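Propose amino acids for all 528 sites.
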């Protein structure tokens, strides 16, 4: 189940040639077994709370550096580096600094004084700063207009979008060596990432030489993810920031899995696969990534403890995620079929049927397509599958259908969808061996992705309230043989007499996500 790498290997050593690996520090993980774990696996620290505005200047003009200083000095003494988090943020900032209705002059003064005092104080002890945290809204309507995409914080209200240049310039002046980051969450979301991209691009083009270089040195992708997060979305955003010429860091990585502090074995592996895929993406872009920092040492001290998001469990034991990060490729390879346990397993018999010839189909096993995803329980059926060296052959009998194809959207018509995941990769996105094949009762085909249409042959035969479809689907990458396991599913869309989909029945995947994720597909064993 776990990777082949030796247990206990130091993560930071494994990633030495790629990027720095970091974790957060609070008083709790700066002593005893947690401190040992921290220093064993990580080479850079971020203060979980101690360097936020609320911790450093609770009262206007009264800076309280004692706790943060002790923490930073301990980190440095342990031979680790330190990253600063965060100079400006709308949260965890004292009320006097963060209040609505403050006038512009006072707001500018507050922003500059805090930023300069704090950055100067830690100068030489931090290698980088999150200068500004979470200034962009979720789901901006027009990401090409970065100023309109800014969160309505007191800083913005009082100063306007210019506050961003003000805070970065103050930080550069106070600590010219430190790398200055813009840091935010949900940057795997396309629109939000585009707004951040537009902002950093505009500000760096406007300020190409602030102390010898562009204003903003880096973009921090926080990385608070879930098992359902698509690593491809992370990759796309990462690559867009890299294209700006800035450094990128993953600054607050965690991946939620399970709930109520319970992580089943399967969920642990799913989480491992998520971490493995993310680290594959990070490794592929290592040259432009400064650091990957986790937000939490272990599941009991994580800010999202109940969702088990870290790499070490509450007893500080290595979780599957740990092995997944040590060796992503091996981990993914070893755990591909682990999900087969509680998904439906069917068999496909060997044989090359000719259209209209029933003899081979008769002996094939029936897969019931009768689990409903919507309240209305309409069209259902059975599927049979055959295979040979080149193709998969599927025949589906549908009953109880209204036989309506009035809706121009193909999935709203009475139709059958077949899902094939040749490598049973169970990915949260479609790989190039994956395909979705739809055929309505009149024989019209629609496939996703488009390229997968090549070589498909199909037929449909409709009667009163029932229809049968057949499809021959060429294998795209697989060289099948006896005992090969593939991911597979069947969905029957039932249209109402008004031409709207009112019923969906499936063989195995009840997630409703089969059109874009292969994670929930059932499995088929090819037998001779
Ligand atoms: C969190 C801390 O982990 C908690 O202890 C605290 O109560 C709230 O803040 N994004 C950030 C971090 O930039 O500062 C947040 O840290 C998590 C979300």
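Proposal:
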């Amino acid at each position: 189940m776990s990777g082949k790498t030796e247990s206990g290997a130091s993560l930071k050593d494994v990633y030495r040639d790629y990027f720095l690996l970091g974790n957060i520090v609070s008083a709790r993980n700066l002593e005893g077994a947690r401190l040992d774990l921290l220093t064993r696996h990580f080479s850079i620290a971020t203060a979980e709370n101690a360097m936020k505005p609320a911790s450093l200047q609770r009262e206007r003009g009264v800076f309280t550096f004692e706790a943060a200083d002790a923490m930073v000095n301990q980190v440095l003494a342990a031979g680790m580096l330190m990253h600063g988090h965060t100079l400006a943020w709308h949260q965890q900032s004292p009320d006097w600094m963060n209040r609505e209705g403050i006038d512009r002059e006072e707001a500018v003064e507050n922003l500059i004084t805090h930023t300069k005092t704090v950055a100067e104080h830690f100068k030489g002890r931090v290698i980088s700063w999150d200068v500004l945290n979470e200034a962009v809204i979720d789901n901006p309507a027009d990401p090409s207009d970065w100023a309109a995409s800014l969160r309505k914080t007191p800083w913005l209200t009082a100063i306007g979008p210019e506050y961003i240049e003000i805070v970065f310039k103050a930080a550069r002046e106070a600590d010219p060596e430190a790398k200055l980051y813009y840091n935010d969450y949900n940057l795997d979301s396309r629109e939000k990432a585009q707004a951040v991209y537009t902002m950093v691009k505009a500000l760096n083009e406007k300020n190409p030489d602030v102390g010898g270089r562009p204003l903003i040195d880096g973009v921090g992708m926080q990385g608070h993810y879930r098992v359902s997060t698509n690593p491809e979305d992370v990759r796309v955003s990462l690559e867009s920031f890299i294209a700006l010429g800035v450094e990128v860091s993953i600054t607050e990585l965690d991946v939620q899995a399970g709930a109520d502090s319970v992580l089943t074995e399967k969920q642990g592996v799913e989480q491992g696969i998520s971490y493995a895929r993310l680290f594959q993406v990070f490794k592929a872009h290592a040259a432009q990534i400064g650091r990957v920092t986790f937000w939490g040492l272990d599941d009991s001290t994580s800010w999202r403890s109940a969702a088990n998001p870290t790499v070490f469990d509450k007893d500080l034991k290595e979780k599957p995620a740990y092995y997944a990060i040590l060796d992503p490729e091996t981990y993914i390879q070893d755990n591909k079929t682990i999900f087969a346990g509680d998904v439906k397993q069917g068999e496909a018999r060997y044989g090359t049927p000719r259209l209209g010839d029933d003899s081979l189909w008769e002996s094939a096993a029936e897969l019931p397509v009768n689990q409903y995803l919507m309240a209305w329980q309409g069209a259902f059926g059975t599927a049979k599958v055959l295979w040979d060296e080149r193709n998969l052959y599927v025949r589906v009998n549908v009953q109880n259908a209204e036989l309506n194809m009035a809706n121009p959207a193909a999935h709203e018509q009475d139709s059958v969808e077949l899902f094939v995941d040749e490598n049973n990769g169970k990915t949260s996105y479609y790989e190039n061996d994956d395909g979705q094949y739809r055929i309505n009762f009149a024989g019209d085909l629609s496939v996703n992705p488009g390229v997968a249409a090549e070589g498909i042959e199909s037929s449909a035969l409709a009667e009163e309230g029932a229809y049968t479809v057949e499809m021959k689907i060429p294998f795209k990458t697989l060289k099948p043989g006896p005992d090969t396991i593939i991911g597979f599913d069947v969905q029957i869309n039932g249209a109402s007499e008004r031409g709207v989909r009112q019923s969906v029945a499936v063989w195995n995947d009840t997630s409703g996500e089969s059109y874009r994720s292969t994670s929930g597909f059932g499995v088929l064993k090819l037998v001779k």
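Confidence is low (pLDDT under 50) at residues 1-6. Residues 265-284 form the longest helix (20 residues).
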